[in-house]
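Field: COMPLEX_INPUT
Field: COMPONENT_COUNT = two
Field: RESIDUE_TOTAL = 325
Field: MODE = joint
Values follow.
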Amino acid sequence: MKYFKYLVVGTVFGIILSKAEVVSWYRIYEMFRFDSFHMYGVIGSAVVVGIILIQLIKRTQMKSIQGSEISIPPKNKSVARYLIGGIIFGLGWALTGACPGPMFILLGQGVGVILVVIASATIGTFTYGLLRDKLPH
Amino acid sequence: MIELISQPWPWYVAGPLIALVMFSLLYFGNSFGVSSNLATMCSIAGAGKVSSFFKFDYTTRIWNLVFVLGAAIGGFIAHRYLTLEPGINLSADTISALTKLGVQNPGADYVPADIFNWSALYSIKGWIILVGGGFLVGFGARYAGGCTSGHAISGISDLQIPSMIAVVGFFIGGLIMTYLLLPFILGL
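Field: COMPLEX_OUTPUT
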């Protein structure tokens, strides 16, 4: 039962991204062509509300339901890994039109072949794990 | 009510709701980041034997796998019960650009039908987009330490500089693909 709440929030997440068409290959292509405000509106308003909520968490020192301090783990300082990794991710995002969340949502929508994309993304992650020590970070 | 939510949702409804999803996960004592599930799947499959990167106690991450299971269920519900028309209301410029590149009926469905089907795997184009694209997403997300949810939403909401650098990277890669490589790939 402790996992049930994650199933509920995940389901809501899948409905939001479906109904806002964020999972559409076309919307991602349109975004990178700057042809529509839609995706910028979605991400932008998520970030604006997100900044407000996180400030609220910090200023009220809000605790999680387990009573622990709420924080987003800080990322290690670097430029190379975020820029290079980010560029590789962006190339893939614009190609498949799906980042990891939408891949699973599209599977639920019945796009069966997205399993190939998920499998390949998992192999990509595995390959990173193998090469990690040889890559600039 | 069902009729209202069966319309496409505008950005100003979806964006704030995504922030609330992030907030819920933080409130539950976790954080919002979908791509780490791919590393969890590697770990469950035994990848810890060949790389220490995958040596972690995956039972602490089961919640996130349950979250994406929910996301798939949400996709099913939205597609099956909350959608009146399947099409996407794309901008005219995008439709004409894609038509020129040979994509059939842009926006008729969520994904291009001639790429996102099993028979696309008999073509080079299908392999590049589905297999190549997936690989780049999985490799890049882990190299950058996160994807759209972890960096673009969570990291920037927390005003973290690394996440801003990563999102700049996402866009550099996305623009190179969209303007330089995709016109060639779609023509294959």
